[in-house]
Design a protein that fits this description.
Radius of gyration: 23 Å
Largest sheet: 7 strands, antiparallel
Bound molecules: adenosine monophosphate, magnesium ion
Number of strands: 13
Order of helices and strands: EHEEHHHEEEEEEHEEHHHEEHHHHHHHHH
Length: about 525
């Protein structure tokens, strides 16, 4: 394995001078050097060959002991120095102070085909930022992160990626439901990849500490390497930097809404500065369409991070970032303009996105109402979002609309006549609306199928793969990995995954109830 190693982050940004791996507040530094922990019996369970190819890691390399040791933290790549990043964050609406990579360790940067990738291990042991926890990760959460990041990539949702999923061979103690019932679980390590792992919180921590010098250094570094088209450091480029982050964040969240993804913990430490989906923890996929749905049990009371609130939270988080960048911009007005734009752009983009899901491409003044009616109808009784939109692309006749979406209802037998009438009315309006479109129904179907996935990583699917993996069987991980590489394709041989959540999964831990314990 011969990688083209770079180290822009550690060579251009201030390092913590303390080299001890002890838990502490780290001042005036963007990162601390920290080595991964050796593990008892590392074993690779799965790799993403596509991601490996992006890094110039060959199929032969993937089979080597060296690769296994690198991605499980048992060996350090020659001439590299692993490190953990310092960041803070607003958690559930409150400033939480220093957080940092408590269980992530960055290995190195790889440059290949003019792209610079950061390689990071999650669950490879403690760092100065581990606070009261152990720096480790368990198999269940690692399977979920590993599969979902790659699934998002193939759904065309901006995301960090996965390279490998491994067992450490160590056991890890966890209390899944925070109810005093701790148990040992298998330890695991995911190697994950991104052009950058910087978060809103990376900037907030310097601002909170009134360390404007290092804040500026970090912004200049980020613009130089990730937003170079914005030009040399200046107030103008800083404002444009914020503008672009705002646009990318909105873009990402609109994609989440499109595919029915609920992140679950949209704290500012989990918001990528590049607008990529990052930190797959207690996330979930909508089954029944429901703006109020939240998979994270920690958020059951307030539902701050519920599906329908994700765009608002994106904006709230951008306010925190604006505050953090203010010391180097020193003007409120341009930041406010950008935040206002987020709101108006959200209205426009979300309408366009919903229209594309319905196969509507021309303009009509009734569109907003048609879509609102649809969203209301979808929430009358439990209606599977993925199946509904996928089946809708076969719509040809208003009289068979209900029949077409029948299989998306969780309890069709008991649906009232009122609900049925409501749907028939909606299909009548949809049919009328389609008359002013200029494309054929075949073409419309093709376009709709390109934005309405047939296969997503339903919560129960991950859980099945996890249950098998716990017993030492990893075939389902690969089956789902392969399935989710073509989420928009019909794949008739995989039709069994185009199905509603089975009843056993309705209230099961890991399927509808997820905690931050991972
Ligand atoms: P999260 O909510 O998963 O994004 O985590 C919030 C913070 O807690 C981050 O700083 C993580 O690095 C840290 N953290 C989460 N789990 C662990 C763990 N097992 N060991 C150490 N730090 C952790
Ligand atoms: Mg996090």
């Amino acid at each position: 394995m011969n990688l083209n190693i770079k180290n822009t982050f550690t060579s251009e940004l201030p390092a913590d001078s303390n080299l001890e791996n002890s838990r502490r507040q780290v001042m005036n530094a963007a990162f601390s050097f920290a080595k991964p922990k050796k593990t008892a019996e590392p074993k690779i369970l799965h790799v993403s060959p596509e991601m490996a190819a992006e890094l110039n890691i060959s199929k032969e390399d993937l089979k080597s002991n060296f690769f296994k040791n690198i991605v499980t933290g048992n060996e350090v790549y020659p001439n590299t120095k692993p490190f953990a990043m310092c960041y803070g964050g607003h958690q559930f609406g409150n400033w939480a102070g220093q957080l940092g990579d408590g269980r992530a360790i960055n290995l190195f940067e790889v440059e290949h085909k003019h792209k610079n990738w950061k390689v990071q291990l999650k669950g490879a042991g403690e760092t100065p930022y581990s606070r009261t926890a152990d720096g480790l990760a368990v198999l269940r959460s690692s399977v979920r992160e590993y599969l979902c990041a790659e699934a998002m990539f193939y759904l065309n949702v901006p995301t960090t990626r996965s390279l490998s999923l491994s067992l450490s061979g160590d056991n890890v103690l966890r209390d899944v439901l925070y109810d005093g019932n701790s148990a040992y679980e298998k330890g695991a390590i995911v190697s994950r990849i991104s052009p950058s792992f910087l978060r809103f919180g990376s900037f907030e921590i310097f601002a909170a500490r009134k360390d404007t010098e290092n804040l500026k250094k970090l912004v200049d570094y980020t613009i130089k390497h990730h937003f170079s088209h914005l030009g040399a450091p200046s107030k103008e480029s800083y404002i444009n930097f914020f503008k672009e982050i705002s646009e990318r964040t909105l873009e990402m969240i609109i994609h989440w809404q499109r595919v029915g993804f609920v992140h679950g913990v949209m704290n500012t430490d989990n918001m990528s500065i590049l607008g990529l989906t990052i930190d797959f923890g207690p996330y979930g996929w909508l089954e029944g369409f429901d703006f109020g749905w939240i998979p994270n049990t920690t958020d059951r009371q307030n539902k701050r991070y519920r599906y329908g609130n994700q765009p608002n939270i994106g904006l709230w988080n951008l306010y925190q970032l604006a505050n953090a960048l203010y010391p180097i911009i020193e003007e409120v007005a341009p930041l406010n303009v950008i935040l206002e734009q987020y709101k108006s752009e959200f209205e426009k983009k979300s309408l366009l996105m919903m229209k594309s899901k319905l196969g509507l491409f021309t303009w009509d003044e009734g569109d907003v109402k048609l879509i609102q009616n649809l969203e209301d109808s979808l929430q009358l009784v439990e209606t599977d979002m993925t199946i509904f939109f996928r089946n809708l692309s076969n719509f040809t006749d208003k009289n068979s609309g209900l029949q077409l979406i029948k299989e998306s209802f969780y309890d069709f037998e008991n649906i009232s006549d009122e609900v049925k009438n409501n749907w028939n009315l909606w299909f009548k309006k949809y049919d009328e609306r389609l008359q002013i479109e200029r494309i054929s129904s075949e073409e419309r179907k093709e376009k709709m199928d390109a934005v309405n996935p047939k296969y997503v990583l339903r919560n129960y699917m991950s859980q099945l793969a996890i249950d098998e993996a716990d017993k030492g069987n990893y075939t389902l991980i690969d089956e789902l990995f392969q399935l989710l590489k073509k989420p928009y394709s019909e794949q008739p041989e995989n039709e069994k995954w185009f199905a509603k959540r089975p009843e056993w999964a309705r209230n099961k831990v890991g399927c509808s109830m997820l905690s931050c314990s991972s």
